Amino acid sequence: MEKIEIRSLTTLEELKHMQEVEAEVWQMAPTPLHQTFTALNNGGILLGAFRDEKMIGFLYSFAGFDGKIPYVCSHMLGILPAYQTSGIGVKMKQKQAKIAREKGYPMLTWTFDPLESRNAYLNLHKLGARGVIYKPNYYGSMHDDLNQGLPTDRIHIRWDLHQTKEDLSFTFDPEQLLLGQDEAGSPAITEAFHTSDFRKSDVFFMAIPATFQAIKQTDFQLAKKWRMETRKVFLTLFEHGFQAKDLIRGERSVHYYVFAK
Fold first, then answer.
1. What are phi and psi of 97, to 5 degrees?
2. Residue 205 forms beta bridges with which residues?
3. Residues 194/235, Cβ–Cβ less than 8 Å
4. H or E element, residue 14
5. Are 126 and 88 within 8 A, CB to CB?
6. 5-160: CATH class
């Protein structure tokens, strides 16, 4: 593979190229230039991934504050389809974290669709960030190809930039599985979900589709069922103080979240 350069975006011309990539990735109107330019000049971090000076990916983040600490809100990461399995996403997030530390930020935050297994694996397993809050239908109705027609549930990620990545070694335990998949490919809440003592147990697992968008394209009602059934389990786990810690790649059709306190 050709050498990919990841660097900070600094000019309006580069932000225009970012719009082009954004439009191609999401097939919707891109973020206005005045917004990205303002973020760039007020503590935000905007990156581009380039192959032979052609932008093939971008990362857009801006400064945030929760009343206690400043942080970087990582709003959008987009990579052209031909390069989405090339590891660019990890490198861009690592570059973003490096710049954030240099600027004095202690934390990065962002949201992601919990049924997108590729994003979950990047956020939790590769980066070592943590899913800390579940937000049902967070963005309301969206009309891009990835979200159209489904509630926009999201997991809120926090990445402590001063902590060393944990050496995770979770072993899948079917006795602690709260949601699996039946023979028809539908989500199936298990007996463990109804009988477990969430105050005493330390680790739980739940299945999500390996390729959620493929299910959405072929069987929309099944995709909606995955959204609503997993929501029940996610909400219960977060309400009892669990965090999303990892994603274990399972058999071909499903992967497994690891939740721990």
1. -65, -40
2. 177, 258
3. no
4. helix 12-26
5. no
6. alpha beta
DSSP state of 211: -
Tokens of 79: 């990579």
Range of lowest pLDDT (4-8, 56-60, 73-77, 161-165): 161-165
Closest-CA residue to 75 (of 118, 124, 35):
35
pTM of the model: 0.90
Could you give the CA distance from residue 231 to residue 225 in angstroms, rounded to a whole number?
10
What average pLDDT score do residues 78-105 get? 94
Take residue 236 and report the two structure tokens written for it: 């219960």
Instruction: Identify the sign of the CA torsion 210, 213, 218, 222.
Output: positive
Q: Specify whether the CB–CB gap between 230 and 109 falls below 8 A.
A: no
The rounded distance, in Å, linking the Cα atoms of 129 and 160 is 7
CATH 3.40.630.30 domain range(s) in the chain: 5-160
Bridge partners (DSSP) of residue 77 are 59
